[in-house]
Amino acid sequence: MNLCIYCGSGLGADPAYLAAARTTGAYLARQGVGVVYGGARVGLMGAVADAALAAGGQVAGVMPRALIEREIAHMGLSSMHVVGSMHERKALMAELSDGFVALPGGPGTLDEIVEQWTWGLLGIHAKPSGFLNVNGYFDPLREMMRRMAGEGFVGDQYVDMLVFEPTIEPLLARFRDYCAPAPKWGTTGAAP
After folding, report:
1. Which domains does the chain have, with CATH numbers?
2. What is the dihedral of CA 120, 175, 62, 87, to 10 degrees?
3. pTM (2 decimals)?
């Protein structure tokens, strides 16, 4: 199993975010779960990768060439996939992964995890998506998603398909038991 980890290229204001990133990387490695992530050596991204590697895990990075040229690439990974664009990065990360986890982060993190949620509800994939909700970081987003359902923009079953847990252990357990809901349009297949 490989999990895609989306998280900040910065450390954030709360030291709990860094602690959670390190715990996540180490725990996944001990469970034999590979990490797929954006390939950076900085921020929470680098912390997850470093912790997984230190615990003997496999870590695959996926990074656009332009970011490697800015010297933020992690050079000690198990593998590094260099791609041409952010769109290619997201597609390859999805292809290499069996599920998607967001740790605290900014707009890039939000973009990536919401795209996977959307692909899941459309039936483009049947992989779990979830949030490591460290100190309630994602509570406002969770409420917004519930409001989307309450206002009739998404079915409750598609909000309920998202996993929110404060730590990686229960999140991974729920991923292992995950069963995707029926796709929104009743079919599965590749992206249009």
Report:
1. 2-176 (3.40.50.450)
2. 10
3. 0.94
